[in-house]
Amino acid sequence: MISQRKNQLSHWLIHAWFIVFSLFCIIPFLYIISISFSTESDLAKYGYQLIPKTFTTFAYEYMIGSPKALINGYLVSITVTVLGTILSLAVTSMLAYVLSRKDFRGSNSLSFYVFFTMLFSGGLVPWYILIKKYLHIDDSLFALILPYVIMPWHVLLMKGFLSDVPLALIESAKIDGAGEWRIFYKIILPIAKPALATLALFIAFVYWNDWYLALLYIDNQDLTPLQYMLYRIMNNIQYLSTSLQTGNISIDISKMPNETARMAIAVLAAGPILLVFPFFQKHFIKGLTVGAIKG
Protein backbone atom coordinates (compact mmCIF):
# COMPACT_ATOMS: atom_id res chain seq x y z
CA MET A 1 0.00 0.00 0.00
CA ILE A 2 2.82 2.38 0.90
CA SER A 3 4.71 1.52 -2.28
CA GLN A 4 1.53 2.13 -4.32
CA ARG A 5 1.16 5.59 -2.76
CA LYS A 6 4.81 6.34 -3.52
CA ASN A 7 4.28 5.32 -7.14
CA GLN A 8 1.22 7.56 -7.42
CA LEU A 9 3.10 10.44 -5.85
CA SER A 10 6.03 9.97 -8.23
CA HIS A 11 3.63 9.93 -11.20
CA TRP A 12 1.98 13.14 -10.01
CA LEU A 13 5.38 14.80 -9.56
CA ILE A 14 6.46 13.75 -13.04
CA HIS A 15 3.23 15.03 -14.56
CA ALA A 16 3.52 18.30 -12.65
CA TRP A 17 7.10 18.74 -13.86
CA PHE A 18 6.16 18.21 -17.50
CA ILE A 19 3.17 20.55 -17.18
CA VAL A 20 5.42 23.29 -15.80
CA PHE A 21 8.03 22.60 -18.48
CA SER A 22 5.34 22.78 -21.20
CA LEU A 23 4.15 26.10 -19.86
CA PHE A 24 7.69 27.47 -20.02
CA CYS A 25 7.77 26.44 -23.70
CA ILE A 26 4.29 27.71 -24.61
CA ILE A 27 4.17 31.04 -22.74
CA PRO A 28 7.06 32.67 -24.71
CA PHE A 29 5.29 31.80 -27.96
CA LEU A 30 2.06 33.30 -26.60
CA TYR A 31 4.01 36.45 -25.76
CA ILE A 32 5.28 36.59 -29.35
CA ILE A 33 1.73 36.37 -30.71
CA SER A 34 0.46 38.95 -28.21
CA ILE A 35 3.23 41.45 -28.99
CA SER A 36 2.65 41.07 -32.73
CA PHE A 37 -0.95 42.25 -32.17
CA SER A 38 0.06 45.14 -29.88
CA THR A 39 0.99 48.74 -30.61
CA GLU A 40 4.46 50.23 -30.28
CA SER A 41 3.18 52.86 -27.86
CA ASP A 42 1.73 50.17 -25.56
CA LEU A 43 5.03 48.30 -25.58
CA ALA A 44 6.90 51.48 -24.66
CA LYS A 45 4.42 52.31 -21.89
CA TYR A 46 3.50 48.91 -20.41
CA GLY A 47 6.20 46.55 -21.68
CA TYR A 48 5.49 43.04 -22.90
CA GLN A 49 1.99 41.86 -21.99
CA LEU A 50 0.48 38.40 -22.36
CA ILE A 51 -2.80 40.05 -23.43
CA PRO A 52 -2.53 43.12 -25.71
CA LYS A 53 -3.69 46.39 -24.16
CA THR A 54 -4.78 47.57 -27.60
CA PHE A 55 -5.45 44.88 -30.18
CA THR A 56 -4.21 45.82 -33.65
CA THR A 57 -3.14 44.05 -36.82
CA PHE A 58 -1.00 46.97 -37.99
CA ALA A 59 2.28 44.97 -37.88
CA TYR A 60 0.79 42.27 -40.13
CA GLU A 61 -0.71 44.87 -42.44
CA TYR A 62 2.72 46.46 -42.73
CA MET A 63 4.36 43.09 -43.41
CA ILE A 64 1.85 42.08 -46.09
CA GLY A 65 1.79 45.48 -47.73
CA SER A 66 2.88 43.63 -50.89
CA PRO A 67 0.85 40.42 -50.75
CA LYS A 68 2.17 39.24 -54.11
CA ALA A 69 5.77 39.34 -52.85
CA LEU A 70 4.79 37.56 -49.63
CA ILE A 71 2.94 34.79 -51.47
CA ASN A 72 5.83 34.42 -53.89
CA GLY A 73 8.26 34.18 -50.94
CA TYR A 74 6.14 31.42 -49.41
CA LEU A 75 6.03 29.53 -52.73
CA VAL A 76 9.80 29.77 -53.21
CA SER A 77 10.51 28.63 -49.64
CA ILE A 78 8.03 25.75 -49.87
CA THR A 79 9.49 24.63 -53.22
CA VAL A 80 13.08 24.78 -51.95
CA THR A 81 12.16 23.03 -48.71
CA VAL A 82 10.26 20.18 -50.38
CA LEU A 83 12.75 19.55 -53.20
CA GLY A 84 15.78 20.05 -50.95
CA THR A 85 14.43 17.74 -48.26
CA ILE A 86 13.65 14.95 -50.74
CA LEU A 87 17.04 15.21 -52.47
CA SER A 88 19.01 15.56 -49.24
CA LEU A 89 17.13 12.69 -47.62
CA ALA A 90 17.84 10.40 -50.58
CA VAL A 91 21.56 11.23 -50.77
CA THR A 92 22.05 11.22 -46.99
CA SER A 93 20.33 7.87 -46.50
CA MET A 94 22.36 6.23 -49.29
CA LEU A 95 25.65 7.56 -47.94
CA ALA A 96 24.74 6.62 -44.37
CA TYR A 97 23.77 3.11 -45.49
CA VAL A 98 27.16 2.60 -47.12
CA LEU A 99 28.94 3.82 -43.99
CA SER A 100 26.84 1.58 -41.75
CA ARG A 101 27.70 -1.61 -43.64
CA LYS A 102 30.13 -3.54 -41.46
CA ASP A 103 31.37 -5.51 -44.49
CA PHE A 104 32.48 -2.32 -46.26
CA ARG A 105 36.24 -1.97 -45.78
CA GLY A 106 36.35 1.77 -46.38
CA SER A 107 33.65 2.52 -43.82
CA ASN A 108 35.99 3.87 -41.13
CA SER A 109 38.01 6.03 -43.51
CA LEU A 110 34.93 7.48 -45.17
CA SER A 111 33.26 8.06 -41.80
CA PHE A 112 36.33 9.97 -40.62
CA TYR A 113 36.19 12.09 -43.78
CA VAL A 114 32.53 12.96 -43.13
CA PHE A 115 33.27 13.71 -39.48
CA PHE A 116 36.27 15.86 -40.42
CA THR A 117 34.18 18.01 -42.76
CA MET A 118 31.75 18.59 -39.88
CA LEU A 119 34.59 20.12 -37.83
CA PHE A 120 36.48 21.89 -40.63
CA SER A 121 34.58 23.09 -43.69
CA GLY A 122 36.03 24.60 -46.84
CA GLY A 123 34.54 27.99 -46.03
CA LEU A 124 32.53 30.54 -47.93
CA VAL A 125 35.01 31.45 -50.68
CA PRO A 126 35.32 27.92 -52.21
CA TRP A 127 31.53 27.52 -52.17
CA TYR A 128 31.05 30.92 -53.78
CA ILE A 129 33.58 30.19 -56.53
CA LEU A 130 32.10 26.73 -57.15
CA ILE A 131 28.52 27.96 -57.50
CA LYS A 132 29.23 31.22 -59.36
CA LYS A 133 32.20 30.38 -61.55
CA TYR A 134 32.08 26.63 -62.22
CA LEU A 135 28.52 25.37 -61.79
CA HIS A 136 26.88 28.64 -62.90
CA ILE A 137 23.77 27.93 -60.85
CA ASP A 138 23.65 31.27 -59.07
CA ASP A 139 20.31 33.08 -59.27
CA SER A 140 18.46 29.76 -59.41
CA LEU A 141 16.73 27.42 -56.99
CA PHE A 142 19.69 25.01 -57.26
CA ALA A 143 21.86 27.57 -55.45
CA LEU A 144 19.44 27.38 -52.50
CA ILE A 145 19.31 23.56 -52.51
CA LEU A 146 22.77 22.23 -53.38
CA PRO A 147 24.82 23.50 -50.37
CA TYR A 148 22.63 21.62 -47.89
CA VAL A 149 22.18 18.35 -49.79
CA ILE A 150 24.81 16.59 -47.67
CA MET A 151 25.26 17.71 -44.07
CA PRO A 152 27.75 15.64 -42.03
CA TRP A 153 25.70 15.67 -38.83
CA HIS A 154 22.67 14.25 -40.63
CA VAL A 155 24.80 11.55 -42.26
CA LEU A 156 26.25 10.46 -38.93
CA LEU A 157 22.81 10.55 -37.32
CA MET A 158 21.38 8.28 -40.01
CA LYS A 159 24.42 6.03 -39.85
CA GLY A 160 23.88 5.52 -36.13
CA PHE A 161 20.37 4.23 -36.77
CA LEU A 162 21.27 2.00 -39.74
CA SER A 163 24.18 0.49 -37.81
CA ASP A 164 21.59 -1.38 -35.71
CA VAL A 165 20.27 -3.23 -38.76
CA PRO A 166 21.58 -6.85 -38.51
CA LEU A 167 24.06 -7.80 -41.21
CA ALA A 168 22.41 -11.25 -41.29
CA LEU A 169 19.26 -9.63 -42.67
CA ILE A 170 21.21 -8.22 -45.61
CA GLU A 171 23.06 -11.48 -46.20
CA SER A 172 19.83 -13.48 -46.20
CA ALA A 173 18.39 -11.09 -48.79
CA LYS A 174 21.47 -11.63 -50.96
CA ILE A 175 21.03 -15.40 -50.69
CA ASP A 176 17.48 -14.95 -51.97
CA GLY A 177 18.89 -13.15 -55.01
CA ALA A 178 18.27 -9.50 -54.07
CA GLY A 179 20.77 -6.92 -55.33
CA GLU A 180 22.12 -3.97 -53.39
CA TRP A 181 19.54 -1.48 -54.75
CA ARG A 182 16.66 -3.81 -54.00
CA ILE A 183 17.95 -4.46 -50.48
CA PHE A 184 18.22 -0.74 -49.87
CA TYR A 185 14.78 0.23 -51.20
CA LYS A 186 12.79 -2.85 -50.19
CA ILE A 187 14.34 -3.70 -46.82
CA ILE A 188 16.44 -0.86 -45.40
CA LEU A 189 14.19 2.11 -46.14
CA PRO A 190 10.99 0.53 -44.71
CA ILE A 191 12.89 -0.32 -41.52
CA ALA A 192 14.29 3.20 -41.32
CA LYS A 193 10.97 5.07 -41.63
CA PRO A 194 11.13 6.58 -38.10
CA ALA A 195 14.71 7.76 -38.66
CA LEU A 196 13.83 9.08 -42.13
CA ALA A 197 10.89 11.08 -40.73
CA THR A 198 13.09 12.55 -37.99
CA LEU A 199 15.85 13.39 -40.43
CA ALA A 200 13.37 14.87 -42.92
CA LEU A 201 12.13 17.25 -40.22
CA PHE A 202 15.67 18.35 -39.36
CA ILE A 203 16.52 18.91 -43.04
CA ALA A 204 13.27 20.79 -43.64
CA PHE A 205 14.11 23.13 -40.75
CA VAL A 206 17.48 23.92 -42.32
CA TYR A 207 16.01 24.75 -45.72
CA TRP A 208 13.02 26.65 -44.37
CA ASN A 209 15.01 28.85 -41.97
CA ASP A 210 17.86 29.68 -44.36
CA TRP A 211 18.22 33.20 -45.71
CA TYR A 212 22.00 33.41 -46.07
CA LEU A 213 22.23 31.53 -49.38
CA ALA A 214 19.69 33.90 -50.94
CA LEU A 215 21.78 36.84 -49.75
CA LEU A 216 24.83 35.41 -51.52
CA TYR A 217 23.46 33.97 -54.74
CA ILE A 218 20.00 35.37 -55.52
CA ASP A 219 19.44 38.65 -57.39
CA ASN A 220 16.14 37.77 -59.07
CA GLN A 221 13.28 39.12 -56.95
CA ASP A 222 11.02 36.28 -58.10
CA LEU A 223 13.39 33.76 -56.47
CA THR A 224 13.58 35.49 -53.09
CA PRO A 225 12.57 33.04 -50.32
CA LEU A 226 10.38 34.05 -47.43
CA GLN A 227 13.10 34.22 -44.79
CA TYR A 228 15.32 36.53 -46.85
CA MET A 229 12.36 38.76 -47.73
CA LEU A 230 11.44 39.09 -44.04
CA TYR A 231 15.10 39.70 -43.22
CA ARG A 232 15.24 42.61 -45.67
CA ILE A 233 12.00 44.08 -44.31
CA MET A 234 13.40 43.97 -40.77
CA ASN A 235 16.64 45.61 -41.91
CA ASN A 236 14.65 48.40 -43.56
CA ILE A 237 12.69 48.97 -40.35
CA GLN A 238 15.90 49.10 -38.31
CA TYR A 239 17.43 51.55 -40.77
CA LEU A 240 14.39 53.83 -40.55
CA SER A 241 14.43 53.62 -36.75
CA THR A 242 18.12 54.53 -36.61
CA SER A 243 17.67 57.38 -39.07
CA LEU A 244 14.74 58.67 -37.05
CA GLN A 245 16.78 58.66 -33.84
CA THR A 246 19.69 60.51 -35.49
CA GLY A 247 17.36 63.06 -37.06
CA ASN A 248 18.17 62.19 -40.66
CA ILE A 249 14.49 61.73 -41.49
CA SER A 250 11.27 63.03 -40.02
CA ILE A 251 8.33 60.61 -39.88
CA ASP A 252 5.63 59.66 -37.41
CA ILE A 253 7.07 56.83 -35.32
CA SER A 254 3.58 55.57 -34.49
CA LYS A 255 3.17 54.61 -38.15
CA MET A 256 6.26 52.43 -38.19
CA PRO A 257 6.28 49.08 -36.32
CA ASN A 258 9.52 47.85 -34.81
CA GLU A 259 9.22 45.31 -32.00
CA THR A 260 5.74 44.31 -33.15
CA ALA A 261 7.10 43.72 -36.65
CA ARG A 262 9.82 41.45 -35.25
CA MET A 263 7.20 39.29 -33.59
CA ALA A 264 4.97 39.32 -36.66
CA ILE A 265 7.94 38.10 -38.70
CA ALA A 266 8.48 35.26 -36.21
CA VAL A 267 4.82 34.23 -36.50
CA LEU A 268 4.79 34.40 -40.31
CA ALA A 269 8.05 32.43 -40.56
CA ALA A 270 7.20 29.75 -38.00
CA GLY A 271 3.53 29.29 -38.91
CA PRO A 272 3.90 26.71 -41.71
CA ILE A 273 6.38 24.62 -39.73
CA LEU A 274 4.02 24.58 -36.73
CA LEU A 275 1.27 23.29 -39.02
CA VAL A 276 3.48 20.55 -40.49
CA PHE A 277 5.08 19.33 -37.25
CA PRO A 278 1.99 17.51 -35.83
CA PHE A 279 1.97 15.21 -38.87
CA PHE A 280 5.60 14.23 -38.17
CA GLN A 281 5.29 14.10 -34.39
CA LYS A 282 4.54 10.37 -34.13
CA HIS A 283 7.49 9.35 -36.33
CA PHE A 284 9.69 12.07 -34.84
CA ILE A 285 9.28 10.79 -31.27
CA LYS A 286 9.74 7.20 -32.40
CA GLY A 287 12.86 8.17 -34.33
CA LEU A 288 14.37 9.85 -31.27
CA THR A 289 13.68 6.89 -29.00
CA VAL A 290 14.43 4.07 -31.43
CA GLY A 291 17.37 2.03 -30.32
CA ALA A 292 16.99 3.14 -26.72
CA ILE A 293 15.35 -0.18 -25.88
CA LYS A 294 16.68 -3.38 -27.33
CA GLY A 295 15.26 -6.78 -26.79
What is the strand and helix layout of this fold?
Elements: H1 2-36, H2 40-46, H3 58-63, H4 67-100, H5 107-119, H6 124-134, H7 141-145, H8 152-162, H9 167-175, H10 180-191, H11 193-209, H12 212-217, H13 226-246, H14 259-289
Helix pairs in contact: 1-14, 4-8, 4-11, 4-13, 5-8, 8-11, 11-14, 13-14
Protein name: ABC transporter permease
Pfam families: BPD_transp_1 (PF00528)
GO cellular component, one term: plasma membrane
What class do helices, strands and sheet pairing give?
Answer: mainly alpha
Number of domains: 1
Gyration radius, rounded: 25 Å
What is the CATH architecture descriptor?
A: Orthogonal Bundle
The count of helical stretches stands at 14
CATH class term:
Mainly Alpha
Helix content: over 70%
Looking at this structure, what is the CATH superfamily? Answer: MetI-like
By CATH, the topology is MetI-like fold
**Sequence stretches where pLDDT stays below 50 over 5 or more residues:** 291-295
Give the termini distance in whole angstroms.
32 Å
Order of helices and strands: HHHHHHHHHHHHHH
Could you tell me the strand content as a percent range?
under 5%
Overall strand count: 0
Report the biggest beta sheet as strand number plus sense, adding barrel if it closes. none
Mean pLDDT across residues: 82
Report the principal-axis shape: flat
